[in-house]
Prior knowledge:
Layout: H1 2-17, H2 19-56, E1 62-67, H3 71-81, E2 86-102, E3 105-114, E4 125-129, E5 137-140, H4 141-147, E6 154-157, E7 160-169, E8 193-198, H5 199-207, E9 212-220, H6 226-232, E10 243-246, H7 247-254, H8 261-286, H9 288-300, H10 305-339, H11 354-381, H12 384-389, H13 399-405, H14 410-421, H15 423-447, H16 464-498, H17 500-508, H18 513-542, H19 551-577, H20 581-587
Parallel strand pairs: 3-8, 5-7
Antiparallel strand pairs: 1-9, 1-10, 2-3, 2-6, 2-9, 4-7, 5-8, 6-7
Helix pairs in contact: 1-10, 2-7, 2-8, 2-10, 2-11, 2-16, 8-11, 8-15, 8-16, 9-11, 10-11, 14-15, 14-18, 15-16, 15-18, 15-19, 16-18, 16-19, 17-20, 18-19
Amino acid sequence: MGRMVLVFRLVTADVRRHPVQAAMLLVSITAATATLALGLSLGQATDTLFRQTRAATAGPDVVALTPGTGRTAASAMAALERAPGVAGHSGPYRQYYTALTAHGLTSRAVAQGADAAPGPIDRPLVTSGGWVRPGGVVVERGFAAALGVRVGDRVTVAGRSLPVAGIAVTSAHTVYPWAAMNGPGGGPSDANGLVWVSRTDARVLAAADLPVTSLLYLKLRDPAAAREFVVSRRPYSDEYPTNFFTWQFMAEQDGVLLKDSQPVLVVGSWLLSLLAIAGVATLAAGRAAEQTRRVGLLKAVGATPGLVAAVLFAEYLTLALLADALGLVIARLAAPAVVNPSGSLLTAAAGPSADTVLLTTVVALAVAVLTTLAPTVRALRTETVTALAGTARRPERRARLNRVSALLPTPLLLGLRLIARRPGRAVLHAWSIAITMIGATGMLMLYAQPVYDYGLGSSKLGNVKVEQGRHALLAVTVALAVLAAVNIITIAWTTALETRRTMAVARALGATPGQVTAGLSTAQLLPTLPGTVIGIPLGVLAAGELSAPPAWWLCAAALVSLLATAALTALPARMAARRSVARTLSAEAP
């Protein structure tokens, strides 16, 4: 217990001394784990939400739809009610194909006649307002969100202006915009929204001679055998023109909306993890000299190698676990909006599973260990006297290279010398830029693709699936840009602190503060060029068969990366260049 308390106190003291570095590590790993947890949660999220909605609304096991309302349709419905394996039914109901207008938007819609008291199977859950009444409609929640309507608004259905009495969710129809499931005459269905109307208003729709379909909700004795029941009823035949939709099919269809989002989030999480590795490695490398001296002090007072290793690793591992917890919380809070883009399902419980929590924890710890292992091992292997002395490494002198570099402008000369002294840091910076450009290029390519229009009747009702994918990619790209900015500032500030004496000597030999500032910025700008050149082609290759965006989009992205790097490095470089030469040399003189 004494050693644990000692380690805790040492770690706490170090975090208090370096709060900015701790915050940067938290931000990096939190973004990576949150995105990974969210991406992995999408795998079974729709199925979970569908099951929740189905349980809350007494959803059917099978939905049967037959064109028309005549004798053939009635016979088909009656035969299904008595079919072997059927434990109960609701309906038949009538579904009319019409148009709905709200707030200037016109969309195709299906209006389903409903009883004042829903039957035992399919009891839509009203989330706002009340249930249907004569002269009032209930709008399915996903459709209402797309139209922007609320309870009390007026909508026009088949030419009649009606108030919105309520908004509800159901599991008896697939999510918006695939509510119709069956087209007029039994053919393929187009995209439609769903509304419920009273029996009285349904008779008005019938009088308007609109296309109509009869539908029946079935409850089976064995819900798991729904597919076998459908196969036994010989769907789609001329003799029995009925289309069937099992609850398993509807759950799978609802998940189509997330088809673009899940790979974006999963791949984006790995890119963010790579960025986090670059950022944490920069922090660890920047503190290498300080950690080495710290190891020397601990050894000098009698600390064992095991205790020293525990102190060095405990800080990063603790922060990694905290960041993992924060990322999981963020994923849990963001999950309802991400996994239910249409809003047509209930989202009472949608969050990371136990497997997801385990994987994100492993990733967070791996990022912390992999980036701090090498500096920690070097510090442990350093002799106590050498660690306490803090002797600087003497740079190698190459006469021919010095003669060539002397001809360069002062800012470029200073920048190249900084890169030559710290090539690993330049590689990390180029790595960060390349990863960011991969995400940015993917976003540009996705936005350049033509969007399939549902044909709902208004160009303002967008493609929910494509929009969800775009939103996910935009969020990942923004997170990549933020982490890349954090890494750039970290590298620039760390380099400025480590080279204070070198830059002071350069100023003493005639370099101006502006040249020193430009030199520090150049040390970051030069690695940005290969990072950009590598990242854009990799982003194009990663996008696969997507058509390429206009060339000027990619050129603009490359220019933005250069300008952003220059802007982010300007402030720390300027602050370092304004430090007094005399004070720097006197404070750091041996």
